Amino acid sequence: MQQLVILTGAGISAESGLSTFRDTDGLWQQYDVMELASIQGYRRNRERVLEFYNARRSNLLTVRPNHAHEVLAELERDYQVTIITQNVDDLHERAGSTHVLHLHGELTKATSSMNPNDPKCVVDRPLDQAIAIGDKAADGSQLRPFIVFFGENVPNMSLAAQIVQQADIFVVIGTSLVVYPAATLLRHVPKGTPCFLIDPGTFDDTMVRGFEHIQTTAVAGMDLLKEKLRQLRS
Ligand code: OAD
C-alpha cells in the first residue's frame, strides 16, 4: 500500500468546535502565548498554566471528531496512513486513526515538571480530572500537562522527519505553518511526491511550492481530496 503522510494543525479540529491559535478568534488573540505556553511562563506561574490547560482538557470532553478526522481514519482501508499532528487533542484517535504521532504533546496525558520526556513519568490523566498544584509525578516533581512548551525540544521531530521522507503522497491540513520546527517537515518530502494543502487561508508561495492548494475548510476539503486521490490511482 502507498504511504499517505498527513500533517495536521488546529484547523482540522476547528469544525469540531476547538479554537485555532492565530485566526482572528484564535486562542493567542485572547491569551498571551508566552505566559501560557512557554516553559518560562510555566516556571513563572504554574497555577495559571495549569488552569489554562485544565480548561482545555475539560473542554475536549465536550467536542467530537468531525468528517475530516473520520475520512482520514477511513483512508486506512486503502493506504498506509500516518498522521503527524501538531494538535494536542485526541480527535484523530477517537475517529479511529491508528498511526498518530503528536509533535506538541497530548491533553489526555500528564508528566513530570523535572523530566517531561521520561516515558516512566508520562501517565494517562482522565480529562475530567484537573491537574492540581501538589499532584506529583513518578519522580516526585510537580505533575504538569504533557505539552511541549515553547522553549522546549520537540522530541518526536526526528521520527516525524523520517516518516515524511517515506511519503508517496503528502497532505497538509489546517496549519498556518508558522511554528518551528514543525514547519520544517515540508523540506523532507521526497522530490516529485504529490502534495496537497487543505486550508482556507493564504500562504507564501515559497512555503508550499508544488502543493495543490484546496482552499477551503477541512470538512469540505476532505471530499475533494478523496476525489484527487482517486484520480491519482486511476
Ligand atoms: P494556527 O492557529 O497557527 O493555524 C490554524 C490554521 O487553520 C490556519 O492556517 C487557518 O487558515 C486554518 N483553518 C481555520 N479554520 C479551518 C478549517 N475549518 N479547516 C481547515 N483549516 C482551517 O494553528 P497551528 O498551525 O496548528 O503549539 O499552530 C501550530 C502550533 O502553534 C500549535 O500546535 C500550538 C500553537 O501555539 C503549541 O502550543 C506548542
Order of helices and strands: EHHHHHHEHEEEEHEEEH
The CATH C-level class name of the largest domain: Alpha Beta
| Total number of helices | 9
Heterogens: 2'-O-acetyl adenosine-5-diphosphoribose
Taking strands numbered 1, 2, ... along the chain, how are they ordered across the largest sheet? 3-2-1-7-8-9
CATH topology of the largest domain, by name, is Rossmann fold
> pLDDT under 50 segments (min length 5)?
none
| Beta-strand residue percentage | 15-25%
> What CATH architecture of the largest domain would you give?
3-Layer(aba) Sandwich
CATH superfamily of the largest domain: TPP-binding domain
Number of domains: 2
Determine Rg (CA atoms, Å).
18 Å
Distance between the termini: 15 Å
Helix proportion range = 25-40%
Overall average residue pLDDT? 96
Summed up:
With 234 residues, the protein is α/β, with parallel strands linked by helices. The protein contains nine helices and nine strands. 30% of the residues lie in helices and 18% in strands.
Could you explain the architecture of this structure?
With 234 residues, this protein is α/β, with parallel strands linked by helices. It folds into two domains: 1-17 and 65-104 and 153-234, 3-Layer(aba) Sandwich (Rossmann fold); 19-62 and 107-147, SIR2/SIRT2 'Small Domain'. The protein has nine helices and nine strands. It has helices at 11-14, 27-30, 33-36, 39-44, 46-60, 67-74, 91-95, 157-165, 218-233; strands spanning 3-8, 80-85, 100-102, 105-112, 123-124, 143-147, 169-173, 195-198, 211-214. Helix 7 links the parallel strand 2 and strand 3. The protein is globular and about 60 Å long. The two termini are 15 Å apart. The mean pLDDT is 96. The structure holds 2'-O-acetyl adenosine-5-diphosphoribose. 2'-O-acetyl adenosine-5-diphosphoribose is lined by residues 9-12, 14-15, 20-23, 26, 37, 86, 104, 148, 174-176, 178-179, 199-201, 217-218.
